[in-house]
Amino acid sequence: MDAEKHPPSEPPFESGSTTPLQHVSGRTPRSATSDDSIGSDATETEGGIPQKLPSLKSPKNIQYNTDLEKGPGGSQSENLQAAVQHVDSNLVDWDGPSDPENPMNWGLAKKWYITMMMSAMTFCITFSSSVFSQATAVTAKVYGVSTEVTTLATSFVVLGFALGPLVFGPLSELYGRPRPLFVGFIISAIFQIPVAVAQNIETILICRFFIGMFGSAAMAIVGGVLVDLWDPVSRGIAGATFASSTFIGPIAGPIVGGFIVHSHLGWRWTAWITLILKAVIGCICVLTIPETFGPLLLQRRAARLRKETGNPALRTALDDARPTMQDIFSKYFSRPLKMLVLEPILLLITLYLAITYGILYLFFFAYPISFQEVRGWKHPGVAALPFIGLFIGILAGCMFVVYFTRTRFARKMREAGSVVPEERLPPMIAAAFILPAGLFWFSWTSSPTISWVPQVISGIPTGFGIIVIFLQGLNYLTDIYMMFTNSAFAANTLVRSGFGAAFPLFAAQMFHKLGVRWAGSLLGFLTVAMIPVPMLFYVYGNKIRAMSRFSPKL
């Protein structure tokens, strides 16, 4: 690919990449817009640096990817020549595309086990974000504060989600996947203890923030693990599994929390139960999940070969191109803000995803108002059961995205060899209409004179719309920004988590003052206003991308 306006040189590899180099590879080259749901191989390249060099054991068996990025001040042929000159017999790489030590070549059962356990860790973290929402009223009475203050206990966790990836993303590049992932997960679990024994609201709020910040290691790193393990097509299914855990966790939280708070256990057991869940899943993962980060595995191979051969010159590409703190600061701090200001696609898609994410967390307080207060369902656990409608909708949305990706999208890939990013948008356009329909449905069936059944069913289109918009929005950003995907995701996560933290703070006031009908309708009108966003990019996305400083021109 030949970028017309190429930004400054990038760090040598991104979080979530399987190897630090891309253009010279032992694997079959892939299109820049191939089927990815979580991450993209394209994110593994920055600044025209090759991804993989030939194996130490097979220096002559080189396969070149001719779809080269034009680096700063260099042509495609110059970049290729530079990559070839960089090859030497002391550089350790995978032993061809079928190297059994390459995580991409691990057995299917092993890869699915890792994927499911990582998704379980993510479920634990997102579950902990919402389970306390059912204790809001109780803790307000216990500590003599308003419910607005105790609502912060939910908002602070989501706020931690925004800041955590800025720490754990760089750490996963420097130290591999498991170490920062497990450290963050364990510390997050430990902070459940002071919440469970807290004697004041300040302790709860501070510790809940750290639960979110350290727990976000899972959401920041698991996407990279999926890139390490799966080919682009299979990654679509694995990515949908991971995404479903991200949304099912917070939906399960209020249901479980409602029954705990109303039982003899009391509200403190929302923290104890979460701690037990995290301890069980965490221990299993620590004992069974291996390193999947390709560059680090190659470093271990190089160390073993140096010992076996007595050749101290053996090294890996990561040794030659370790990212500096300046590279990491640019990727995770300065560039995301710059892209958010300069990129209309990133700005509008991020705004859309942030609104849908905020609505999801707002519902953790709107549903109890509608079913407990308006309909008179006194038991908090029973009043939380309508969240099952959202749960069904999210599962249906994930299956729909997988089906679309493996049929229409995959067919276009086979026929044309590549697909424009806008081919990700048809499901998002459909979901853009389905989401407000679900919100209006929820709002105008909320009267206690109407059966509860249609209002509960309204959660299905609402959940479907939220997850499809979320998945396809991220896929669209991945296909557009390619080697800048991590920076785009950092900006998206920061804004989206901010909305997720803010929306619950005005949920109670809005639904009490406007009533369920008009408060829900206001959310519906807000999502109606966002319908043109995916339609605009589906029609004019190609022209808008042509003016982008960060979207490579193919």
From TrEMBL:
Membrane spanning residue stretches: 112-132, 152-169, 181-197, 209-230, 237-260, 272-298, 345-369, 381-404, 425-444, 456-477, 489-512, 518-540
Pfam families xref list: MFS_1
Source superkingdom: Eukaryota
Domain Major facilitator superfamily (MFS) profile: 114-554
A GO term for molecular function: transmembrane transporter activity
Feature: compositional bias, Polar residues: 28-42
Main location: membrane
Descriptive protein name: Multidrug resistance protein
Species per Swiss-Prot/TrEMBL record: Coccidioides immitis (strain RS) (Valley fever fungus)
